[in-house]
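User: I'm new to structure prediction. If I give you an amino acid sequence, what do you actually give back? Let's try with this one:
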Amino acid sequence: MIEMSVEYTDAPATRPEASAGDKMPCPYCGHPLPKDAESCDRCDWTRSGTTETAEGKASDAVAVILSVIPGLGHIYKGHKLAGFLWMAGAIPVGIFVFLAAIASAGFGIGLFFFYLIAVMLHAYAVDDRVVAPREDEGEEY
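Assistant: Good question. You get back a string of structure tokens that encode the predicted 3D arrangement of the chain. For your 141 residues, that looks like this:
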């Protein structure tokens, strides 16, 4: 007599399937991963390789006080390159404005344009305060 073995493929799993609350999307490709995943098997994302900023730990009030010197607030919040670029651009301009004010005996009428540019740069930098949502990263408008 021939013995026949039957294997059930539609049997319930021995361990419960992870629910949507136990998963997170991969920051690079969006593939669902377990919440405690160290890396993604579909792209090169690794948890240890992510860049960490001081955004969650840094105080906004301290950053505002440090921003009296252009760039220090950015450096404090973890945006080091932007902070050094602000310093490299703003310090020479500040020295020039100071010397121009002294040279004009304090009547620096032409300084209006420098202040106008400073206000425009400030308005440009306001975007640094607002963090874009994850789904908008990498999109071009």
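You can read the tokens as a compact description of the fold. Here is one thing that stands out. The mean pLDDT is 74.
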